[in-house]
Amino acid sequence: MPPLVIAVPKGRILSEALPLLARAGIRPEASFSDENSRALRFATDDPAIALIRVRAFDVATFVAHGAAQLGIVGSDVLAEFDYSELYAPVDLGIGHCRLSIAEPVEMAAADDPRGWSHVRVATKYPHLTHAHFARRGVQAECVKLNGAMELAPTLGLAPRIVDLVSSGRTLKENGLVEVERIMEVTSRLVVNRAAMKTRPDVVPLVEAFRRAAAPATPSDAAVAA
Ligand SMILES: Nc1ncnc2c1ncn2[C@@H]1O[C@H](COP(=O)(O)OP(=O)(O)OP(=O)(O)O)[C@@H](O)[C@H]1O
Ligand SMILES: O=P(O)(O)OC[C@H]1O[C@H](OP(=O)(O)OP(=O)(O)O)[C@H](O)[C@@H]1O
């Protein structure tokens, strides 16, 4: 049987994913945690498990198509793609943020979201944005960007944005405020549904991730002390 491939996002999730992989008993070769390495596929100390490092938005695509059997991906990306081939059995409790609508501070002072009937929005999440506004009976026109959404209002690209917010610092430093939350986001373990049925090595690994993600209870801490 070929090695099981786990897709892990490069960028900000990687640093939070490393301790989680260690707790799940997955020990990658040293270059995996080196952001400067140009390698994309990495061995682990278990010849039956390999890791690939891909863009956060591509993790879902690799796993949905069976190119990787498991992956770590934000629930924002999962909701944006909505792949039926993906099963997301474990909330990994990392990558906490939220997807929100934001607009310039001055605009927010005189704006009432309940009065919106049509909005033009810059976002990396056109599907989620359309779906959210459609539920509210608002027609949304999306300008798709892949980053730096916060520039859109001041440069006249779109008066509002839909983007991820964590500390709120990026919004603040660009003169924007959050006016509505769309969803809370954490990273999930995703599994290719067909691989789950056909490969006996998938379920034990899902269980290893489940144990690795479980928050330590006070009694665990007492045992450890
Ligand atoms: N500010 C944040 N705080 C916590 N988690 C975040 C934050 N921003 C993004 N995330 C999570 O990390 C994932 C990847 O983030 P993002 O899309 O910004 O990619 P990136 O790490 O900048 O890499 P890329 O170069 O592929 O865009 C998101 O899908 C989301 O789940
Ligand atoms: O509320 P904050 O803590 O400031 O975080 C929010 C920022 O984090 C994400 O971008 P990221 O840093 O991943 O860069 P990107 O624009 O390249 O995706 C997101 O797109 C915001 O810009």
From TrEMBL:
CDD domains per record: PBP2_HisGs (cd13595)
Keyword Cytoplasm belongs to the record: yes
Entry's Gene Ontology molecular function annotations: ATP binding; ATP phosphoribosyltransferase activity
Residue ranges of domain ATP phosphoribosyltransferase catalytic in the record: 55-206
Enzyme Commission code: 2.4.2.17
Annotated metabolic or biological route of this protein: Amino-acid biosynthesis; L-histidine biosynthesis; L-histidine from 5-phospho-alpha-D-ribose 1-diphosphate: step 1/9
Gene3D superfamilies: Periplasmic binding protein-like II
Main location: cytoplasm
SUPFAM superfamilies in UniProt: Periplasmic binding protein-like II
Keyword check for Protein biosynthesis: no
Keyword terms, alphabetized: Amino-acid biosynthesis, ATP-binding, Cytoplasm, Glycosyltransferase, Histidine biosynthesis, Nucleotide-binding, Transferase
One GO CC term on file: cytoplasm
Catalytic activity: 1-(5-phospho-beta-D-ribosyl)-ATP + diphosphate = 5-phospho-alpha-D-ribose 1-diphosphate + ATP
GO biological process, one term: L-histidine biosynthetic process
Domain of life per record: Bacteria
Location(s), subcellular: Cytoplasm
Subunit structure: Heteromultimer composed of HisG and HisZ subunits.
Function: Catalyzes the condensation of ATP and 5-phosphoribose 1-diphosphate to form N'-(5'-phosphoribosyl)-ATP (PR-ATP). Has a crucial role in the pathway because the rate of histidine biosynthesis seems to be controlled primarily by regulation of HisG enzymatic activity.
Alphabetized NCBIfam families for the sequence: hisG
Domain notes for this protein: Lacks the C-terminal regulatory region which is replaced by HisZ.
Family the entry assigns: Belongs to the ATP phosphoribosyltransferase family. Short subfamily.
Protein name listed in UniProt: ATP phosphoribosyltransferase
